[in-house]
């Protein structure tokens, strides 16, 4: 995007239809009209936020860096007076040498889960052995 146009939120508000859908995320004014049908969560998700600041919803979902890159294609301007708190914190952390980058999500198993497989194996096996013993002991008693 070239020179950024500066908008106020009241200028974004009228763009709230499927034919003209704008929203604000992290101070960026985005025209998502062409992206509505391509959005992985469906157009309804975006339509709930058009004409408004959708930053909280965007951040709550935990979008990837790829999503932020896609957003850049739809940027038509910036929100007047917006101060990005995250970039101010990032700049401070970088100047202090604290740089953290999340490259993926890690799902850790609960600590006790590794021991549970023994129970998962032992209980059905014990039940099967007892059932077999019961059936066999009944037929042996008849002999």
UniProtKB/TrEMBL annotation:
Compartments where found: Membrane
Name of protein: Cytochrome b5 heme-binding domain-containing protein
UniProt keywords, alphabetically: Heme, Iron, Membrane, Metal-binding, Transmembrane
Top-level taxonomy: Eukaryota, Viridiplantae, Streptophyta, Embryophyta, Tracheophyta
Cross-referenced PANTHER family: CYTOCHROME B5, CYTOCHROME B5 A
UniProt domain Cytochrome b5 heme-binding: residue ranges: 4-80
GO terms assigned for molecular function: heme binding; metal ion binding
Single GO cellular component term: membrane
Domain of life (superkingdom): Eukaryota
Listed PROSITE patterns: CYTOCHROME_B5_1, CYTOCHROME_B5_2
InterPro entries: Cyt_B5-like_heme/steroid-bd (IPR001199), Cyt_B5_heme-BS (IPR018506), Cytochrome_b5 (IPR050668)
Similarity annotation: Belongs to the cytochrome b5 family.
Coiled-coil positions: none
